């Protein structure tokens, strides 16, 4: 039985920082992400691996901003109300 799609599973290995990490993504013809992936590869004129690298960078940037906003909101709640 397959696991839940997108759920992070507990890592079974430690990735040494000096060794490359191989991320394998299989996009079946029925996957809704496949046409999006193909469109990006064709429009950007880069390899599929570069599309994934750029997507990882953009997702990381978005999540970093989200965490910063959440931390600022939590800090604002902790400040005493004056006035």
Report what the structure shows.
The protein has 83 residues and is an all-alpha fold. The chain is 52% helix and 0% strand.
Task: Set out the fold topology.
Blueprint: H1 33-44, H2 48-78
Q: Treating each run of at least 4 consecutive H or I residues as one helix, how many helices?
A: 2
Number of strands: 0
- Poorly predicted runs are none
Distance linking N and C termini:
59 Å
Query: Rough shape?
Result: extended
In terms of structural class, how would the helical and strand content be classed? mainly alpha
Strand content: under 5%
Biggest beta sheet attributes: none
Q: Report the mean per-residue pLDDT as an integer.
A: 86
- Determine the oligomeric state from the structure: single chain
Main traits of this protein?
mainly alpha, 83 residues, 52% helix
Summarize the model shown.
With 83 residues, this protein is mainly alpha-helical. Helix content is 52%, strand content 0%. The longest helix is centred in the last third of the chain and has 31 residues, at 48-78.
């Amino acid at each position: 039985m397959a696991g839940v799609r997108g759920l992070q599973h507990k890592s079974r290995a430690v990735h040494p920082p000096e060794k490359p990490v191989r991320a394998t993504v299989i996009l079946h013809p029925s996957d809704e992400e496949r046409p999006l992936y193909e469109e990006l590869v064709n429009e950007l004129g880069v390899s599929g691996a570069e599309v994934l690298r750029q997507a990882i960078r953009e997702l990381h940037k978005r999540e970093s901003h989200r965490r910063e906003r959440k931390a600022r909101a939590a800090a604002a709640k902790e400040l005493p109300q004056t006035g």
